[in-house]
Amino acid sequence: MTENRGGRSSTQSAGADSNAGLARAYLLTYRGPNDGSPADGGVTAPIDVALATRVSPELLAAHYRLGHRRSAGETLVAIYPADDPGRFGPALQIVTDHSVLLMDSVMVLLHRMGVAYTAIMSPEFRVRRDSAGEVVAMGPAADPSAPADGIDETWIHVQLATMGDGKLLSTTPTAGYVQAEARVAQ
Asked: Counting Cβ atoms within 10 Å, is residue 179 exposed (0-12), middle (13-18) or buried (19+)?
């Protein structure tokens, strides 16, 4: 479980063990495209096997920065260019309330928008926040040490295939589309 101790606001504030636990949660949800071309001529790209075997501290820290302050019901989205200093771009990250069909909605939306991706990871975390929406404690929702009084959130990382996709996403109200589709799907 990661805790925000003394105002420090990164996953590294709780130590390497917490980072390893968070990274494992990401890897357990790793999804790449189907082998070969999708039957519908979709826009997924070949699987990046290296991504499936590691989640960098920079990726975790960026996602934590995105989600460290959030109101219930709010969807946060960040788009990272290929030359992002964290060296995990091009990528799309989303933090939102958990919904059963959320990942299906994200994947459908990306396909509909013509956005190619090489991998998606979507860990579900149980997050306790203070009255200002700041993360106080978090852990994988299935982990018994996750805060029992937290709410379930999905933290999505989409590894994009090309930077052109990031430019397309940055001009589209992606968060609203994803959230609206997830609510309809429930």
From this structure: buried
| Residues whose CB is less than 8 angstroms from the CB of residue 10 and which lie 6 or more positions away in sequence, other chains included | 61, 64, 65
Domains of the chain, by residue range, sit at 2-185
- What tens digit of pLDDT does each residue of 100-127 get? 888 888 888 888 888 888 888 999 999 9
Q: What is the pTM of this model?
A: 0.76
* DSSP H helical ranges for 76-170: 102-113, 163-170
* Residue whose token pair is 């459908």: 108
- 91-97 vs 151-160, strand pairing mode: antiparallel
Token couple for 134: 């700041």
